[in-house]
Design a protein that fits this description.
238 residues, alpha/beta, 6 strands, 46% helix
Length: 238
């Protein structure tokens, strides 16, 4: 993959800049423990997945949508027997996700600093979810000032990627998307003719699992620390 024509580098946020999914999985484990009287963890989780999936067209993604699904699913799996006290505990579990630390993953800040120092690329956070939640995580991370813009969308569809390019006045071939989700960060961009760097995270949300493939416009790296070398202008790589 060559990045000679790249003008805009877009970064996913959750599980690319900081750990998010591990916190959701911890909440889900505690949730299943609270609902143990109504089924084992595998059953509770499977029903939660169905509830989340059904709610996505109206609620979208993020901690608040997840919390609503937690409460709804608790009522369903308990057949209405779950107590008000337990529902309050579930609500607090979901609310705790609004306060997750958003500590930058290893190498993230150094990589962003190096790319910014090149003075060659515009940099944007391009993530999906709920605006206030995503902006607050970025603020807590301390990374906000590395980016020219922050864009939070309901979902990462080809249309949204085209709109992102239009916002910056570039063609899709001048976009490089960096993220952990092949389904949301890589496949849509490549299908349009853009480029993408895939940095798999240690855990993947079930809704983001998809079949991966090789492509000349995709680079896979193990760590974001490898990204600046990919973006170094031709002839200046060490």
């Amino acid at each position: 993959m060559t990045t000679e024509q790249t003008k805009l580098v877009a970064f996913d946020a959750d599980d690319t800049l900081w750990d998010c999914q591990s916190h959701f999985e911890a909440v889900e484990r505690d949730y299943c423990a609270l609902l143990a009287p109504y089924g084992d963890a595998a059953h509770i989780s499977a029903e939660l997945f169905k509830t989340e999936t059904a709610n996505m067209p109206e609620l979208g993604y993020g901690s608040k949508a997840f919390t609503l699904s937690l409460v709804e699913n608790a009522v369903k799996v308990s057949k209405g027997r779950v107590s008000a006290h337990t529902l309050l505990q579930i609500q607090e579990l979901g609310r705790s996700l609004l306060r997750l630390p958003a500590t930058p993953l290893e190498g993230v800040e150094e990589a962003l600093k190096a790319i910014r120092a090149m003075a060659r690329y515009k940099m944007v956070v391009f993530t999906k979810g709920e605006i206030l939640d995503q902006e607050n995580k970025l603020l807590r991370s301390g990374l906000w000032d590395y980016f020219d813009r922050v864009e939070v969308v309901a979902d990462k569809t080809p249309r949204q990627y085209r709109e992102l390019c239009a916002m910056f006045g570039i063609g899709i071939s001048e976009l490089l998307m960096v993220g952990n989700s092949f389904k949301s960060d890589i496949e849509p961009v490549v299908s349009l003719g853009g480029m993408a760097v895939h940095i798999p995270f240690k855990v993947t949300w079930a809704h983001e699992q998809t079949e991966e493939f090789d492509h000349s416009n995709i680079a896979r790296i193990d760590s974001i620390s490898e990204l600046p070398a990919l973006l170094m202008p031709h002839g200046r790589r060490a």
